[in-house]
Design goal:
6 strands, single chain, 6-stranded parallel beta sheet, Rossmann fold, alpha/beta, 234 residues, DNA polymerase, domain 1
Length: 234
């Protein structure tokens, strides 16, 4: 990657970049699989749920609410409508548990943001349900560390271009940091910006990309957000 000396604006993804998120979905998913195990195999449940999630993105967008509604739809389909009302209530309760789950910051996040504040313009760019994302941002205690916060329905070239235009940011002076190659890295590189990829322990399969997608792409990969400062100072 070209050096980062000319960077004036650094944007961060939120879920699984600043705080832990995806593993909560996997815990709920396993509960769902266990509950439907008397009807179909585990793989069938997971595959059908994923299919429902993809179908429903255009209706509900990303986030917990769409996930729970997809579980309800999948359960009705896989049980031929025999799923119990009390089980449907469990799905809803699991969703409420996720929404109200404490926000656990990833180690080093607050220290890194404090170190960057005043040296760069900082932007938080996250996708998902507006209410849920606003709540997590508020509960994280990080909101005051950012110059701007953008909650978007999708992360693609058009979204990033619109944000950079909104704040009069030159792409060559823009750095995006996130855990998703599909959403945080590739779209930014494709508009002339720079990107740092910090893999999370757990990533939703929908965010996966092929080797050909990232072949010859010029980005930095770090094992931890705590490695960010040394790379900016190089």
């Amino acid at each position: 990657m070209k050096n980062l000396n000319n960077i004036t604006t650094i944007a961060f993804d939120a879920d699984d970049t600043l705080w832990i998120n995806e593993h909560l979905f996997r815990i709920t998913e396993q509960r769902f699989v266990d509950l439907l195990s008397e009807y179909v195999t585990d793989k069938t449940v997971i595959d059908k749920l994923y299919d429902a999630e993809l179908r429903n993105l255009q209706h509900f967008g990303y986030g917990i609410k769409g996930f729970i509604l997809s579980m309800i739809e999948t359960a009705i389909e896989l049980t031929n409508g025999e799923v119990k009302g009390c089980d449907l209530q469990k799905f809803i309760d699991w969703g409420k548990d996720q929404i109200n789950h404490p926000v656990h910051l990833i180690s080093g996040v607050e220290e890194v943001l404090n170190s960057l504040q005043g040296k760069y313009k900082l932007i938080l760019i996250t996708k998902g349900d507006l209410f849920d994302q606003e709540s997590k941002i508020a509960r994280s205690g990080l909101a005051s560390l950012f110059n701007h916060i953008e909650i978007v329905s999708e992360k693609n070239k058009e979204t990033y271009s619109s944000i950079l235009l909104k704040y009069n940011i030159n792409p060559i002076e823009f750095l995006m940091i996130g855990n998703s190659l599909k959403s945080d890295i590739l779209p930014v590189l494709n508009i002339g910006g720079k990107a740092i990829y910090i893999p999370a322990d757990t990533t939703w399969v929908h965010e996966a990309v092929s080797d050909s997608d990232i072949a010859d792409k010029n980005y930095i990969e770090l094992s931890s957000i705590t490695k960010l400062i040394p790379n900016l100072e190089m």
